[in-house]
Amino acid sequence: MMKKMIFVLVPLLFGVLASNAQPYDIQMDNKIYMDGIASVQLFTGEDQLSAPVGVLGEATFHIAFDDLSVEVRHPKYTFIHCTHDWQPSQMNQIEYIEGFMEEDITQYDHSFNTIEPYLHYHAEFPNENISFSKSGNYILFVYDDSPDNPILTRRFMVVEPLPAKIVSDVHSAFDVNNRQTHQDVDFVVFTGAYRVRNPQQSVHATIQQNGRWDNAKYGLVYKSGNASELNFTYMDGANTFPGGAEFRTFDISTLRSNADRVVGISFVNRHTHVYVLQDDARPYSAYESRGNINGRCYYRNRDLVNDYSEDYAFTHFTLKSSFPFNEGNVYVFGELTDWQLLDEAKLHYNKEFDFWETELLLKQGVYNYQYVYLPYGSNAIDATYIEGSHYETNNIYSIYVYFQEEGTSYDRLIGYHTCSITDPK
Fold first, then answer.
1. What residues have CB less than 8 Å from 190, skipping those under 6 apart?
2. Which residues contact 161 (CB under 8 A, 6 or more apart)?
3. Do domains 20-159 and 165-243+393-419 have the same CATH topology?
4. What is the CATH number of domain 248-375?
5. What pairs with residue 175 in β-bridges?
6. Whole-prediction pTM value?
């Protein structure tokens, strides 16, 4: 009987290895694949504004999203380990996933007393059924019953329990031509317990600005120092970012009265419409300091204390500009668009009133946003063409340091650090 059991299990295990070795037909990026999915959040702890970064064996990640189609689904999720530059790792899933290879999302709730009905799905991981054993970059892949029906993907990062120390310095750009408009992010990595023999090949760093991945600096290598103290100070612009401007903001956490920068609320054809105060293009304006959440959004309903009572409203944006946009398109941009250039976020010219406009269906809460420009034929988002750029802007930078140890086939995340130009020097 035992021999028969072994004979059966070996082919099954081989099948799992073979199938897991094939990449899923998804992007290794933050993306929504199904219509009706909205307000996706992935964070650690209890703070919905926390970054999706946690320590191996300690952090609890929370995934949450709404389904406005109110369609009955059977969502499941799995993890995909990635390299420092977000390519699938060479490892098989059984090398970094402990427990089951997939897990069901069984927790969902119906929206409470909302005009726009939705189902709110949520789950926590790692848990007793599924966890991960390696640090590094991961993709959370959520699908409806089968990987052939992807719902969403989300990037998250797992840090080694004994991280390297990172000391940073954010300052105006070294290049004299960019000194008033750009910021440099210099840092030193103290590797500590990690024995780095060939840092030029085995250590890579990534710098991320305000949670964006489209303009992140990947694959940075140290410029000077020794194996225990790696200096990432550049003079060639490899660590330089446009400062941009402080984000614009509006508040729709109440739909009973006009809150911050909301000038009107109406109910038309069984839908709520909110009108944000008209914006002006400001490429040459002086720097303005204002408190914000660096492009993020925070969901809440100030009028009801019940869970899942946040409603959705069609939110209208208008932009006035003294110069035309003849050679590209303008988009509303931020976490409210998933940091993507969405078709529905593209502004269209209203000839009658001489402004640009669009509308987005958004969940109640407090929002940051900006207007970005994409020239025709380009893939590079320009957040300065309309907003301007200042070296004083309080951007939040995240630094990730990866190390591929000799004899291993994956990038460990050995360091994580956040910083801004306002940090004490």
1. 164, 165, 166, 167, 228, 229
2. 55, 56, 57, 58
3. yes
4. 2.60.40
5. none
6. 0.93
Residue 14 has pLDDT above 60, yes or no: no
Domain range list for the chain = 20-159, 165-243+393-419, 248-375
**Which structure tokens are listed for 174?**
């070294």
Query: Regarding the domain delimited by 20-159, which CATH topology (the fold level of the hierarchy) does it fall under?
Result: Immunoglobulin-like (2.60.40)
- Side-chain-side CA neighbours of 244 within 13 Å: the count stands at 22
Amino acid type, 89 = S
Name the CATH architecture for the domain at 165-243+393-419: Sandwich (2.60)
- Name the average pLDDT for the chain: 93
pLDDT of residue 23: 63
pLDDT in tens, 236-247: 999 999 999 999
Site of tokens 């028969």: 4
pLDDT tens, position by position, 171-221: 999 999 999 999 999 999 999 989 998 898 999 999 999 999 999 999 999
Output phi, psi for 62, to 5 deg: -120, 125
Rounded to whole angstroms, what are the CA distances from 185 to 159, 172, 237, 243, 245?
A: 21, 9, 10, 11, 17
